[in-house]
């Protein structure tokens, strides 16, 4: 008689086995990554690689479509692909160890991907490699104990007649796999996978408790910044953006966790003296607080990838002067702890504007997702060429020698922020009562300042809006305008004029490669 173990497991049991094997890879990988680097966990190693290799057009559309939730979308699609792959592994393992082979193959790809990420060591291979060993063991074990179709259905009444005592559903009498035994094993392997994943999270958190570190972080004292005044319009963007509502854009699937006690900043390259600073060194220097509007190049016309905050930090120009920038160095290449790089013209840092090594945002230490413990903020330049979060390295070099993360992917090397204006109220496709209707929004023309903002209803002449007080040329400006609205459907348009007299262009351009342009409009129904 054939031994039951030689018959193939049912498809559903095989799928369960495959998924649990994959979960084991992730769980064991997580626990090992906790002591190496959380970025080395299989899921994040692969996700990071996907982010780095997603075509810029897709990155751009992901940001457009999901806002700062692009990571959630990636997370969900990766999970979906993994589930399918895991099921396939289970099914292929039914008769021959093909599933194990596929699992090892996948793991090898993830290891290769992990080792391609910036700033990695060979250790990055360990979590996925050891996870795969555990995963194959789990797969084999589950495969051996999985009930086959024939086992599950093998108690037809006629045959069971002779064995009336045998409990139904326990399969054949004797030593073959049983459903109950398989269920118990599934629960065990599932608990093991979850347990290792949770342990990994916990150990990782204990080893680099950045939350506690941030809670203890002393913000440097500075002269206070002037208060901002607000135009009193309901629904208008606040002048200062609260930290929890500040837009977030970065390539980090997992927010880097860098304790201030582990942080160092190296300033090197074309300098007279290399600097290697820690927070004690910084604290001996003078800090300032500045109101600055940060803007993302991926912002669409009318979009909300811009925000204004009071940044506390150390003037970058002072640090560069201390290091002594050699003649010929025109590029400040900043690097984050997770390998992101941005290339900023040296001239933009040394021309007197408030370029900062920022450590505080709106009176608190930088939120972890906004770069704790230190980031760059350079007024007038889009974030991807200036605003490196979790910054650990500044290299003085030349544009003809070095590229940066997004410029290597085709985005412009020089990226001053383009003049923009936006209508916040009335909301898109709102219905408003006829009569006096307030129209309001924000506009920005960094470095030059906003001279005026104009509003147009349908094809009527442009009207001049009232402006909020100008905080500085590096911050946005609120505007509002009273509209005597007549019934019907109307198109509202806005445009800004900068201090040099240049009217914001109406030529529509997408964000790629150096920022969107065009007038924002809104269609409103008046009753
Ligand atoms: N380390 C790191 N820093 C980064 C990025 C990144 O992907 N990684 N993205 C940049 C971009 S494109 C922008 S617009 C700003 C956004 O800063 P915020 O998330 O604090 O708003 O961060 C910049 N700094
Ligand atoms: Mo950006």
Automatic annotation (TrEMBL):
Residue ranges, annotated region (Disordered): 149-177
Stored InterPro entries: Ig_E-set, OxRdtase_Mopterin-bd_dom, OxRdtase_Mopterin-bd_sf
Annotated transmembrane regions: 12-36, 72-91, 98-116, 122-142, 182-204
Superkingdom as given in the UniProt entry: Bacteria
UniProt key word Kinase: no
UniProtKB keywords: Membrane, Transmembrane, Transmembrane helix
Database matches in PANTHER family: SULFITE OXIDASE, MITOCHONDRIAL, SULFITE REDUCTASE
This protein's name: Molybdopterin-dependent oxidoreductase
The species this protein was found in: Nocardia aurea
């Amino acid at each position: 008689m054939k031994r039951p173990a030689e018959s193939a497991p049912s498809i559903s049991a095989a799928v369960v086995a495959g998924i649990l094997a994959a979960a084991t890879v992730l769980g064991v990988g997580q626990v090992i990554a906790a002591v190496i680097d959380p970025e080395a966990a299989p899921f994040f190693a692969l996700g990071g690689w996907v982010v780095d290799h997603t075509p810029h057009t897709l990155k751009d559309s992901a940001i457009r479509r999901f806002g700062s939730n692009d990571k959630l979308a990636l997370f969900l699609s990766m999970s979906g692909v993994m589930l399918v792959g895991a099921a396939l592994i289970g099914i292929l393992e039914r008769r021959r160890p093909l599933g194990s082979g596929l699992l090892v193959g996948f793991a090898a790809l993830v290891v290769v991907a992990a080792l391609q990420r910036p700033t990695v060591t060979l250790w990055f291979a360990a979590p996925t490699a050891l996870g795969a060993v555990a995963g194959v063991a789990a797969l084999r074990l589950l495969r051996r104990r999985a009930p086959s179709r024939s086992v599950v259905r093998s108690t037809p009444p006629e045959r069971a007649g002779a064995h009336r005592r045998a409990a139904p559903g326990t399969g054949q009498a004797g030593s073959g796999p049983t459903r109950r035994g398989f269920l118990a094993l599934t629960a065990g392997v599932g608990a093991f996978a979850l347990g290792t994943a949770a342990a990994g999270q916990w150990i990782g958190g204990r080893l680099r408790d950045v939350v506690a570190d941030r809670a203890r972080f002393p913000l440097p004292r500075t002269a206070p910044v002037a208060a901002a005044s607000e135009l009193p319009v309901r629904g208008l963007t606040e002048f200062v953006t609260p930290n929890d509502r500040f837009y977030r854009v970065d390539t980090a699937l997992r927010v880097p966790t860098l304790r201030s006690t582990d942080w160092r900043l190296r300033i090197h390259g074309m300098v007279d003296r290399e600097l290697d600073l820690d927070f004690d060194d910084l604290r001996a220097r003078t800090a300032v607080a500045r109101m600055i509007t940060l803007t993302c190049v991926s912002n669409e016309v009318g979009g909300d990838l811009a925000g204004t905050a009071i940044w506390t930090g150390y003037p970058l120009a002072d640090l560069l002067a201390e290091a002594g920038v050699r003649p010929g160095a025109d590029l400040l290449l900043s690097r984050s702890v997770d390998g992101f790089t941005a290339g900023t013209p040296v001239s933009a840092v040394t021309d007197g504007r408030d370029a900062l090594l920022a450590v505080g945002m709106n009176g608190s230490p930088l939120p972890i997702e906004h770069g704790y413990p230190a980031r760059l903020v350079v007024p007038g330049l889009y974030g991807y060429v200036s605003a490196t979060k979790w910054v650990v390295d500044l290299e003085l070099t030349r544009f003809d020698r070095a590229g940066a993360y997004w410029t290597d992917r085709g985005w412009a090397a020089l990226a001053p922020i383009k003049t923009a204006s936006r209508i916040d109220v009335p909301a898109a496709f709102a219905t408003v009562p006829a009569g006096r209707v307030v129209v309001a929004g924000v506009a920005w023309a960094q470095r030059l300042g906003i001279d005026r903002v104009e509003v147009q209803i349908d094809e009527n002449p442009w009207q001049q809006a009232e402006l909020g007080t100008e905080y500085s040329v590096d911050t946005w400006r609120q505007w509002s305008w009273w509209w005597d609205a007549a019934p019907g459907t109307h198109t509202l348009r806005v445009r800004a004029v900068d201090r040099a007299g240049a009217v914001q262009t109406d030529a529509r351009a997408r964000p790629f490669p150096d920022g969107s342009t065009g007038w924002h409009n809104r269609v409103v129904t008046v009753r």
